[in-house]
Structure formats: structure tokens, C-alpha cells
Design goal:
single chain, alpha+beta, four-stranded antiparallel sheet, 16 strands
Length: 475
């Protein structure tokens, strides 16, 4: 995590480097009585390499972010230069912003409210759809049908973003849910790192709810002999959160991701994913570089210890995970928009009560890029009913000889600003999956991490800005 003292000084440096300072209220910043920046980042950032023990030493966070400005013409390059100063503590496999941690989020105490917020719909009176419905929107596709994706819709993204898919949700005049899909190489299949870990969770929900339609996954635990040789049992929701949050309260995220995959044969899980997204080119037979935390897990009812599902007795032959940005965008949209989309488009058999367990787990993602975007755009006091569910991924690939980062998210919020003019508040909801890649010559993995971390945060900020500015409505 970076402190906002550092970010404030980063903004100043970015302004000095920019030929035209756009979108920052210089008078308000001057009112902060800033002195020349003689502070080094080693002095203002207490950053440990495990990505969790982070300490913010500044009390100026709210003051600084409130005064970064809300001008819709904020210069992405200026924002990037600010972020790149903030990411200076990053090293290979430990980017600063990707591993900020849920404890830094202003929404950490609101995660329990996400399921209720994701049921919210415009009523045409005090809440309307934020995006403008037009002919570029269409009904959400049925299971197995690949939507039309406008591959020219994300040309504004920086070239370091190699693949991307954005889906914007909208309620038409009859309050029926419609979507628009934008992409950059959205159907290109490749490695998306740990962002794919949520797929096994959703497959479990689908399979269990098929047999027990009314069950709530909060009533389940996973038990078995762990990697230390101990018989253990943990609540499903705690394991799912630990996998997403990287808090390591129970086990490593990679070992938990591998454990959840043990409930299915890799080929069966792959077939299920193809059925869901319609992408027949994907491969989903890999693990996450670690042995499963529990090699032979059992899913049990917490109160009765009744076994609901055993690990597959056939040991898996692990291969690789090769999916697309579209696949990830599709799966997270089916999760978060369960109450908006028709039955034939939903995750098969899954009930909302079970899906909320996955939603609250994803609310605790370590990557807080959308939080940052909201703050940098000066909107933290204007957005209500915020829900952000996401999953990061990152790594250094010897195959492609570069550093990579992935950010998958569904974002939902209500813009309250129109209420000051006597108009209804506006509901915005959208999903995104971005994979960035950075290769310097000669290779410098630590520097690649710093630059790519800043780039991912910048592009997420630009997507949020364009959604709110309605710049993607007519694309």
C-alpha cells in the first residue's frame, strides 16, 4: 500500500511534468501548505514483501483525495505518472497496488451489504439507469451463446493492456436489463493467472444447488487432512475469502485454489465452463503452482457433519488454464447480475443465497483498483450503494518473457449528484476483465511490476471515468 502523502506529492510531480495541468484544483492543493518534496518513499511507505503487513502513516488521505479534482478531462498520463510514484515499493510478484489489501478499503465494512445492493433496480422515480439505452444494447445472452463483442470499443486503452472485455449493464424504458460488450482481443485465450480461481467456486455452487436447491453455502464447511498432516475443518465462506483476500489466515491462496479444484476432474470443470460461456477454445485443466491445501477435501454440513460431496477419487492430471477476457467477464457478470438476467442466462441451478457466499468472498479481494479510481476521480462522497467484487491475478511468465497482471471486477454504484438538482439518482453497473503485459529490454522484473501496476490502476480509472461520463454509451 502507498500513503497518500506520497500520492499527493506524486500528483505535484505529475503536474510539473505535464504541459497542461487538467482536472486538479491547484488552489485547493496549495491550501494544503505543501512544502518541497524531500521525503523518500522508504520514509513514507512501510511495505512488507508478504503484501499484507502494511501501515499507513498519513492522516491526510481524505483531505488529499477530496482535492484531486473531478474534472472529466483528467489526463490519464498525469494520473499514471502519479501512480507510478506510488508503486515504487513494488517488486517481482508483489505489486503494491494489486496487494493493497481489503483493510485499506473504505468499503470493507460494507461487504455484507453487497448482496442486497446487487438486487437494486431503477424504479423510474428516485432512481434511474445511469447509462443511456440505445440500439447498441441487447438482452443478456443465454447460456452458451457468445455475445457480439465490439472489438473497436476499447481503443482508448493503453497498449500495455493486451486483452480486455468490458460489459455495461443498462435498464431500458421497460426496465428490462440490457448489455453492451466491448473488447480488445476479448476472445483470445491465454493465461489469466489467479483470476480464474473463482470458477471452481461457482461450479461447486451449481452442482450442489442442483441436488439441494434451497441450501445456503454459508452452512457448509470443508474438512480433511491438510498439507501439515492435520485433520482440519473450516467454513466454506472463510476458505473462499482467504483465497481471494490473500490474508493467509488459513492457507495460501494458490493452495486453496488447487483444493477447490479437487472436487471435479479437470476435464469436467472445463466442459462446464465451455457450456457456460460458449467459448469452445478455452482450456481449464491447470492448477496454481501449489499442492492443494487439502488433497482429498470433503464438503460437509457444518452442524451435522453430513458429507455433501467428496473430492474426486481419480487424481487429476494437471495441464494448463487458458481462457479469455470474455470468459471471465461473462462468469463474473452472471454472478453479480443474477437478479437482473433471465433464468436461461443464469449459472445453472445456482440460487442467490449460495451465490452471496461467493460475492462476499470476492468483495474482500486484495486489489483495490476500483476504490482508487473512485477516490482519484473525487467521487468517494458522491457514490452510494457501492458494491465491488473482484479478483486479481499476476505473475512473471518465462513463456511470454514479460510481467503480467489481471484485474477482473463487477462494479455497481449509485451516483447521487443529480439529487442536488432535484433529479433522480443514477444506477451504474458494469464488469471488466483486463490483462496487462510489460516487457522491458533488458528485462527488469521489478521495474516491470512498478510500471504495470501503475498502468492497470490508470486504465481502471479511465474505464470508470468513461462509464460515468457516458462516453461508452454510443460506442
Amino acid at each position: 500500500m502507498f500513503t497518500l502523502v506520497g500520492f499527493k506529492n506524486s500528483i505535484q510531480r505529475a503536474q510539473a511534468q505535464s504541459s497542461s495541468v487538467v482536472g486538479v484544483n491547484k488552489n485547493l492543493l496549495a491550501a494544503l501548505d505543501l512544502e518541497p518534496d524531500n521525503t523518500t518513499y522508504s520514509e513514507v511507505i512501510d511495505y512488507s514483501l508478504n503484501g499484507r503487513d502494511q501501515l499507513q502513516k498519513s492522516s491526510a488521505q481524505k483531505v488529499v483525495l477530496d482535492n484531486l479534482g473531478t474534472n472529466s478531462k483528467n489526463n490519464p498520463e498525469q494520473i499514471y505518472q502519479a501512480f507510478i510514484q506510488a508503486t515504487a515499493g513494488g517488486v517481482e510478484d508483489k505489486p503494491v497496488l494489486m496487494y493493497q489489501g481489503i483493510n485499506t478499503s473504505p468499503y470493507s465494512e460494507q461487504i455484507k451489504d453487497y448482496p442486497t445492493r446487487l438486487m437494486q433496480r431503477p424504479n423510474g422515480k428516485n432512481l434511474v439507469s445511469g447509462t443511456q439505452f440505445n440500439a447498441t444494447f441487447s438482452p443478456y445472452p443465454a447460456i452458451g451463446k457468445v455475445p457480439n463483442i465490439n472489438e473497436q470499443g476499447l481503443t482508448f486503452l493503453h497498449e500495455d493492456i493486451k486483452e480486455a472485455c468490458v460489459c455495461i449493464g443498462n435498464f431500458d424504458n421497460q426496465r428490462k436489463f440490457q448489455t453492451k460488450w466491448l473488447g480488445r482481443n476479448a476472445l483470445a485465450c491465454d493465461e489469466f493467472w489467479s483470476s480464474t480461481k473463482i470458477i471452481a467456486l461457482l461450479n461447486l455452487v451449481s452442482r450442489i444447488n442442483r441436488k439441494n436447491p434451497e441450501v445456503d453455502f454459508d452452512s457448509y464447511s470443508v474438512r480433511g487432512i491438510d498439507t501439515s498432516g492435520n485433520q482440519n475443518s473450516f467454513r466454506f465462506q472463510d476458505l473462499a475469502r482467504d483465497m481471494v483476500s490473500y490474508e493467509h489466515k488459513i492457507a495460501t491462496s494458490n493452495s486453496l485454489g488447487a483444493m477447490f479444484k479437487r472436487f471435479s476432474l479437470p476435464l469436467d470443470l472445463e466442459k462446464w465452463l465451455k457450456l457456460i460461456t460458449g467459448n469452445q477454445d478455452l482450456i481449464f485443466r491447470g492448477t496454481y503452482g501449489k499442492k492443494p491445501f487439502i488433497e482429498e477435501p470433503e464438503l460437509v454440513e457444518t452442524t451435522t457433519n453430513k458429507v455433501i460431496l467428496n473430492a474426486d477419487q481419480q487424481l487429476p492430471r494437471w495441464q494448463c488454464n487458458v481462457v479469455s477476457a470474455y470468459d471471465l467477464t461473462r462468469i463474473v457478470s452472471m454472478l453479480g447480475w443474477h437478479n437482473y438476467i433471465p433464468r436461461q442466462s443464469r449459472i445453472p441451478h445456482a440460487n442467490w443465497e449460495s451465490l452471496t457466499t461467493v460475492i462476499t468472498a470476492m468483495g474482500a479481494d486484495s486489489a483495490r483498483l476500483t476504490d482508487l479510481a473512485i477516490q482519484v476521480l473525487g467521487l468517494q462522497n458522491d457514490l452510494e450503494s457501492v458494491a465491488i467484487i473482484s479478483k486479481l491475478g499476476n505473475g512473471n511468465t518465462s513463456t511470454r518473457e514479460r510481467t503480467e497482471a489481471v484485474y477482473l471486477a463487477l462494479v455497481h454504484f449509485v451516483d447521487s449528484r443529480p439529487k442536488a438538482l432535484g433529479k433522480p439518482a443514477k444506477l451504474f453497473t458494469f464488469t471488466m476483465a483486463l490483462r496487462g503485459g510489460k516487457a522491458l529490454q533488458p528485462r527488469d522484473p521489478n521495474r516491470e511490476v512498478v510500471e504495470l501496476d501503475a498502468r492497470m490502476a490508470t486504465e481502471v480509472t479511465e474505464i470508470v471515468r468513461r462509464v460515468l461520463a457516458l462516453e461508452l454509451d454510443l460506442v
